[in-house]
## 1
Amino acid sequence: REPYSVITDQSPPTIQAQCAQCKQATELRTCLHCDKALCADCRTKHHLSQKKEVDESLRKSMTTVNDLINLGQALNISRNTRIETYKVMKTKVSTHSQDLIHSIQEEEQRYQKQIDEHIQSETSKIPITEQEVQHLQKHKAAISQVTDTYEHENNQMILTKMHKDYMNMTPVWTAKIESEAGRLNPKREEV
């Protein structure tokens, strides 16, 4: 109301002149809207026209503001709904991740146990295989000795007797070698 406090029913002062609107000579006042000198009737019509325009503008502004307020409130309601949904999702993700971690830890323990069992099994086989290799080394030494003796013997009678003894011993040696070969079978090592 402050900028309008100097305006009264008697201001601006009247003048005698021709109305800018209806052209009638009478008492006129200058319109504070359009700065034209208007008679009382033309000022009233002009005022009503301006009032209608201002009222419409204010109504549109109020409608726009109310629509924006409603939109803002609706947006915040939607945001709050999404926030609650996100909180539920966050809880579910946390729970699911804990379940996954627990499941992974159980799998890890299961695999670690299996690996430990394989290590123990492989470790227990090493001394047995070393023992088999020692037996095979003895067989190799015996075969080398027989071969060396057989190759360096010139007496045919001795060679014939050696041949007979060797042929009698061959099934025993072969059985022992095949038995040890069975225990050293790489196919049995497949995991």
## 2
Amino acid sequence: MPRRTADEVRGNEEGDANSAKRARTEDNRPTAADEEQPNNGSAAAGRPFSEFNLSSGIVQALEKQGIVSLFPVQALTFEAIMRGEDVLVQARTGSGKTLAFGIPIIEKLNSLKEGPTRGRGPAAVIFCPTRELAIQVRDVIAGISGGLSVTALYGGVAYNVQERALYSGVDVVVATPGRAKDFLEKGTLRFDRVKMVCLDEADHMLDIGFKEDIELLLQRVAEQNGSVPNEPKHQTLLFSATVPDWVHTCSFISKNKKFIDMVGQGAMRAANTIKFYRRKCSFGEVSGMLADLVKAYSGRHGRTLVFTNTKKNLPMVDLVIQCAPPTDIDAFIHRAGRTGRAGRKGVCVMLHQPKDEYIVERIERHAKIKFEVLPAPTREEILKAVARDAAEDLARVERSATNLFLEQAAELLKDADPTEILASAIAVMSGYTSNITKRGLITGAQGSSTIQMVGQRPLPIHAFCSILRNNLGDHLFTRCRDITLLQDMPGCVFDVPEELVPQILAAPIHGMELSVIETLPPIIARELHSGGRGGGGGGGGHQHRYRGGGGGGGYRGNNYHTNRRRY
């Protein structure tokens, strides 16, 4: 496994910074350019507006936001939606789905030429699974709506503000099922004008937890707009990053629907501009690891979204960190899709405990992605990253502010070296006024160092373990963590507590060269299905790695038995 440096992971940040600023509105809400330009191509990948029957108002609104063409999912769905067909669209998160339904919805509603009467119900309803997505969709569609009224209904806020919007009259409602159901029961929300219904993230909307509410809402739409069985008076649009087989059989979408698959069988379901990394991390190390990852791979001027059990939307994200692997594969894909949007590169890092390796393998298999194992950020990488951020901050200080501190600066420089004073100032700005604790490059454990042991010929992992135990003794060997084979050299690497490093380096191990390393060389990634778990006190063996632990067993399949001293 090649070592990825923080600069390689973080490489897209500086190049994308200016475009990110241009794409963001003054109130920091996402624009269509934030959310809708696809993540797998530049403007050249799109089709020019002139190929489609788009109104000048839509074209001007899109161009104002830096969008100059329709991208694949928008181009392939536009004509079918404009013809009034029901459509089921599978497309990756970030590929432009919102504008794919938003543009034709606005075009069709404008063609109705209905006046803005007070108290009118919506002509189009878009259902979203979360308030964050509802707000995001509302903002994107409002950016191209012209004179049409677009409002969002979602929980977590008072009813009265949203009620006032409904009383005034609306053309497009973007709603979460729960809040829409509340307003429907109160009689505040009516569906008698509805001509178009769209489900965004349709797989989630039709799954357990939403399905009953969605079925009720769609039933009310049919009842109130005068539909009859098998002859609905509204058009149904389903958009999703994943489309399980059962979605095709939904009763409320036409059997003659047009299915547009932008992903394909066997293709990677997440955006192809996202680099996926995983970092093994024990529960107690998560908070410290999060801080180091953000500093090293995103920095103070990047934008990071950390997923736990709750989430909040953030546009223009550079780095997504998932603190634990979700058991729902679709949830992983949707979370990862918050980065790698609008043609920008993105990074998704997933932290996981050793016991969750099987979930990692399952995500790779079903999402058609491949994680790279991400070593813990080194002390040098963290220092380089925070120093770079501090230098950027210094460059942004206005002259008028600098003048306020000239007297104190001159006083400091009287009896001190200017370079040392500036270095101290950068340390304070970066939040590091004392030494930074080292982390093991393999385990990420704080207060650990990584030792490399290289011999003269290749040996299996259990042989290296035998050599270490025989020469270090049980008291030191059991403190060696994640002994792992090197890929390009006849040796292994392992993490140990810093205080034990002198003892281990001083051990006379014949034919072996031991050294502390600061950068992890290529290692042989563990095969998740090989070997066996340790017994007793927690050791564990696999084909290429021994996890270590207090006296436990390992390598039953490879004849390494800690408890029986057989190698």
